[in-house]
Design goal:
This protein is mainly β. It has one domain. It has one helix and eleven strands, in the order αβββββββββββ. The strands form two sheets. Strands 9-8-7-6-5-11 form a six-stranded mixed sheet, with no helix packed on it. Strands 4-3-2-1-10 form a five-stranded antiparallel sheet, with no helix packed on it. The longest helix has 19 residues. Keywords: Signal.
Length: 160
């Protein structure tokens, strides 16, 4: 009898845990079940994700299930997003810049001469505040799967 009660208690805990997780949210990114992951990587215990919802890109940063920043908070037809390319000796890469007033959040992935560099850079008024490198390989679809209407970035960007 004790074994049955213990099994039932564990089953109830497992069901409660499953219900507590947002519907369809990936355990590895901030993107919901029906959102496309455009960029995602772990940075220590946190993740940076760019999610595509019905053609609108959104930047997420923080612990899974508890993002510290989601920008834009509501879809804005990609008015705050630009894209760019990175030229490197023996390679290259791509980046997305999310502009929020004086702050820019730049997700990037580039490879040259066998060196892979992926992460996020935070700038304020064009000056770098933070450069966080991915601690795992990034999911990167920046160059292949962007919605229409994202303009080329006019600001300079250099990999840290």
């Amino acid at each position: 009898m004790k074994k049955i009660v213990g099994t039932l208690a564990l089953s109830a805990i497992a069901i409660q845990s499953a219900i507590a997780q947002p519907m369809g949210e990936s355990a590895q990114s901030h993107c919901a079940y029906l959102e496309e992951v455009v960029f995602n990587c772990a940075i220590g215990k946190k993740h940076v994700s760019v999610c595509n919802t019905d053609g609108n890109l959104q930047y997420h940063f923080g612990k899974i299930g508890a993002a510290e920043l989601v920008f834009p908070a509501t879809p804005d037809n990609n008015e705050s997003v630009t894209r760019g390319g990175i030229m490197l000796a023996g390679g290259g890469g791509d980046y997305l810049r999310f502009s929020n007033g004086a702050h820019d959040y730049i997700t990037y992935s580039a490879e040259g001469r066998g060196v892979l560099s992926e992460g996020v850079v935070v700038e304020k008024n064009g000056k770098q505040l933070a450069a966080l490198k991915c601690s795992s390989y990034a999911t990167n679809k920046i160059s292949t799967n962007l919605p229409d209407g994202i303009h080329d970035d006019a600001k300079p960007f250099f990999i840290p």
